[in-house]
């Protein structure tokens, strides 16, 4: 998948009647009045910040629409564990410096958390986090990995002379028994695309409830999902509108399917048109599995006159138990990670003026048939000077 470009070409939609060039656009009314803006910039810090002041009212999700799966019975769970048996996916994650160095810094700079403690590494992969914990002074680390990579992890531990500290256990967390009754720390890199796609969150919560001591620590212990909106005419035309005319043939039936599947890709920060909005913050130390299903309202305020072709979701994770708050962001204004961002294309091309707002809500829930997949419903409306629209769209990450 190639890197996306910052695009400023004229949309073909009849909803957008103003030709434009360059990055800065100003739609003007007859009286040429300026528009007041209440927008704010995205936080581009790699260190997560305290978001207590950004409380979002959460409603109970209405997931009745998620039953309409049709004939599509394929599941990512069928190949999820096998895919992690190949070294290639681990190479990509290990080379993600934002991801791996953050975990390394969390462990090495907070040795007081790990000294003489029993650690459980959930979804250990190559065992890199377990090795970090061992070097930080952990009394013992139990590295649990379900895929065949567990065999490689055992060899890696032996090769690095840490077999007396790190024990690799092969199997599912839900099916194994640890040699100890309780652990002091649970560490895991459980996050998936869109935070919740093909993630291991429920596995971490299961391990927490079964083995973590009452005053134990979960790392990371906080994850937040955000939404913003972008101009993306060129890329949308290449990925979506392409199906309208394929060598002279109408293949628009595929276009409908393509619209429902969020695109995981890198977004250029120059494409961002609105502020960002916090959708949901999850406290991993206290939440229950059902909290991963939610409905959250949003309000995206335009920071300039432009066209909007897609919403973009990304997440931050935080390690709040450290001596100094640490974490990272997967947002388009932060250093790139292998998670990239998640792009949800809109049926409409929205013509928006600076200061105008897109109001809506997003409902997120695991797919009923395939829990590692995610169903998303977005309701949005814009009542602006150049565009009035109200729509509900459904997406399926699988």
Automatic annotation (TrEMBL):
Q: Which UniProt keywords apply?
A: Methyltransferase, Nucleus, S-adenosyl-L-methionine, Transferase
- Per the record, GO CC terms? nucleus
Has UniProt tagged this entry with the keyword Transferase? yes
The molecular function terms in GO held by this entry are: histone methyltransferase activity; protein-arginine N-methyltransferase activity
Q: Where is the composition biased (Low complexity)?
A: 7-19
Where it mainly occurs, coarsely classed, is nucleus
Q: Which residues form a coiled coil?
A: none
Quote the subcellular location field of this record.
Answer: Nucleus
- Record keyword Cell wall biogenesis/degradation present: no
What Gene Ontology terms for biological process does this UniProt record contain?
methylation
Give the start-end ranges of region Disordered: 1-24
Q: Which Gene3D superfamilies match?
A: Hnrnp arginine n-methyltransferase1 (2.70.160.11), Vaccinia Virus protein VP39 (3.40.50.150)
| Protein name per its UniProtKB record | Methyltransferase domain-containing protein
């Amino acid at each position: 998948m190639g890197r996306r470009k910052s695009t400023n070409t004229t949309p073909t939609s009849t909803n957008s009647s103003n030709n434009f060039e360059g990055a800065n656009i100003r739609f003007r009314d007859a009286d040429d009045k300026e528009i007041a803006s209440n927008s704010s910039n995205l936080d581009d810090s790699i260190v997560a910040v305290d978001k207590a002041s950004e409380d979002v009212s959460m409603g109970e999700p209405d997931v009745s629409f998620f039953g309409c799966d049709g004939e599509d019975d394929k599941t990512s769970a069928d190949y999820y564990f096998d895919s992690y048996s190949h070294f290639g996916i681990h190479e990509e994650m290990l080379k993600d410096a934002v991801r791996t160095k953050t975990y390394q810094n969390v462990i090495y700079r907070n040795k007081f958390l790990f000294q003489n403690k029993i650690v459980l590494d959930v979804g250990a992969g190559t065992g890199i986090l377990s090795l970090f914990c061992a070097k930080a002074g952990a009394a013992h680390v139990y590295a649990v990995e379900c895929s065949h990579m567990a065999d490689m992890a055992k060899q890696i531990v032996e090769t690095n002379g840490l077999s007396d500290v790190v024990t690799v256990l092969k199997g599912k967390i839900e099916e194994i028994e640890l040699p100890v009754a309780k652990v002091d720390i649970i560490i895991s890199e459980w996050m998936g695309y869109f935070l919740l796609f093909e993630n291991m969150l429920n596995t971490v919560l299961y391990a927490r409830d079964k083995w973590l001591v009452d005053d134990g620590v979960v790392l990371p212990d906080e994850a937040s999902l955000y939404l913003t909106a972008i101009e993306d005419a060129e890329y949308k035309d290449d990925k979506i509108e392409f199906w309208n005319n394929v060598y002279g043939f109408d293949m628009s039936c595929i276009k409908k399917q393509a619209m429902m599947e969020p695109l995981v890709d890198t977004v250029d920060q120059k494409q961002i048109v609105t502020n960002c909005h916090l959708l949901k913050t999850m406290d991993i130390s206290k939440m229950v599995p059902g909290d991963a299903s939610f409905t959250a309202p949003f309000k995206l305020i335009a920071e300039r006159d432009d066209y909007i072709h897609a919403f973009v979701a990304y997440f931050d994770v935080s390690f709040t138990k450290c001596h100094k708050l640490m974490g990272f962001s997967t947002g388009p204004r932060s250093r790139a990670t292998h998670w990239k961002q998640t792009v949800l294309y809109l049926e409409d091309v929205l013509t928006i003026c600076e200061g105008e707002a897109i109001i809506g809500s997003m409902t997120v829930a695991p797919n009923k048939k395939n829990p590692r997949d995610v169903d998303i419903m977005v309701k949005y409306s814009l009542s602006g000077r150049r565009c009035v629209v109200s729509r509900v769209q459904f997406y399926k990450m699988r």
